[in-house]
UniProtKB/TrEMBL annotation, chains A, B:
One of its GO terms (biological process) is fatty acid metabolic process. This is Acyl-coenzyme A thioesterase THEM4. Its EC number is 3.1.2.2. GO terms for cellular component: mitochondrial inner membrane; mitochondrial intermembrane space; ruffle membrane. It is a peripheral membrane protein. InterPro entries: HotDog_dom_sf, THEM4/THEM5_acyl-CoA_thioest, Thioestr_dom. It is found in: Cell projection, Ruffle membrane; Cytoplasm; Mitochondrion inner membrane; Mitochondrion intermembrane space. Belongs to the THEM4/THEM5 thioesterase family. Keywords: Apoptosis, Cell membrane, Cell projection, Cytoplasm, Fatty acid metabolism, Hydrolase, Lipid metabolism, Membrane, Mitochondrion, Mitochondrion inner membrane, Transit peptide. The lineage of its organism: Eukaryota, Metazoa, Chordata, Craniata, Vertebrata. It comes from Perca fluviatilis (European perch).
Length: 256, 256
């Protein structure tokens, strides 16, 4: 039962990620390679009234972003597909992914939603509104290369060793990036394993890069690797392998 | 250089943990088995003016603690060594470890402190003061059995999958518990690896147990395993192996 509930929840997380990507792209047909996307899209189209207001996208620049954060954001954002004001399509290999403090905050219905909603609940990485105090990050996905990058600026509330980022905060960003990447690649998934090697500490306030790669897919399993480096790539902070298990989306809704 | 700085920082983290244990025990000679304790104690005794005020101990009960959190706290706390008001010593195999939002907040000097202090920085697991909103936890150590337990109540700001705890928040608690345990067992250490298998999700608001065990020590390496279960032990949430590397404490202070 709890396992089923877990599947339900993970499924809603996936729905959130995938539908967010699609909302961002605003294209009925997307080139993002997602198994099960059709079903997810049907769900999103069938339940438009679920979303009662437009949530804040935390992945856009704010006053706390330092020069390195801005430089890397502009580097990848400049290579994103976009539609200009004149209606022209700008080509590019990358997509920026929006990020919210909770998708379900904006939902008002659903068979299982009422059972699992806690109105005060917030996404762990977006639970502090003070800009720059905690996790400042933005994800980009490159579907052709089956790669994700995340630009991450670590705020002063993420301390572990004095002056440096807590190992758990680093694990949190790794889980976020690889989990999002696995969802894009394989549809609804559950995290099964994170194996993190810590090589060198990350100073508080610094901006680092997380790069996520597809290693292989075998049946229900999606294997992802991820490295965290300094913003110029010269220093390796962590190396990670991650395993995700695909789950049946219809089972999520039925609680089976 | 950054590696050295990391060592310095990890060392101060260890100093914090070990000296906190000693402060808690209020005994000049402790039975806690800590390599390098003598050196740490000398440091603490030599720099009494560093600590200008008594910090808040976050590991004591507050109004947010639910019945299961209180039951487990009392279960272990009742088995702790303590000195009664009459001066009698109450025997017990466990020790409760205090927990602060930052040790260096209360420091006012030191060769390296001024270089690494960021006055607004807070320990990641103690960065929210609203009781019950995030990480509510208390650690106990059993030196004879070389075991630690942590009672953890997961607040609504730790959400990942809707209604459940973020995998990164779970990793954060695992890093905290195993890192503290390794410090007690081996003195100053650095986290080198966390390998986490996620078995079943943890509902927000629930209380779980983290149990940490020494697997073996080989030279500089301390191998710890940790499992997270429901409070009655019937459901397994995660299984983890962790590796920590001992570091030379004198090198920490010299920045070598």
């Amino acid at each position: 039962m709890a396992r089923s509930l877990g599947r339900i929840c993970k499924g809603f997380q996936c729905l959130g990620s995938v539908s967010s990507i699609q909302t961002q792209l605003r294209q009925p047909s997307t080139s993002v390679s997602v198994r099960g996307t059709t079903f997810v899209r049907t769900m999103v189209q069938a339940l438009p009234s679920l979303f009662s207001s437009k949530p804040r996208d935390f992945s856009l620049p704010n006053s706390s972003w330092g020069s390195e954060m801005m430089r890397l954001y502009e580097h990848y954002n400049g290579q994103c597909k976009a539609e200009t004001e004149g209606g022209e399509k700008q080509e590019g290999p990358w997509r920026r992914l929006p990020s919210y403090n909770r998708l379900l905050k904006y939902a008002t219905g659903g068979v299982y939603l009422s059972k699992i909603i806690q109105s005060k609940a917030r996404l762990f990485t977006r639970n502090i509104r003070d800009p720059g105090a905690a996790f400042e990050y933005v994800l980009f996905v490159n579907s052709e290369e089956q790669k994700c990058v995340c630009v991450f600026q670590a705020g002063h509330l993420l301390e572990g060793p004095p002056g440096h980022v807590h190992g758990g905060a680093i694990a949190t960003m790794i889980d976020t990036v690889t989990g999002t990447h696995a969802t894009i690649l394989s549809g609804p998934v559950m995290t099964a394993n994170l194996n993190i090697n810590y090589r060198s500490p990350i100073p508080l306030g610094s901006t680092v890069l997380l790069e996520s790669f597809l290693d292989k897919k075998e049946g229900r399993k999606t294997f992802i690797s991820c490295k965290v480096t300094s913003s110029d790539g010269s220093k390796l902070h962590t190396e990670t392998t991650a395993l995700f298990l695909s789950i049946n989306f219809s089972h999520l809704l039925l609680g089976e």
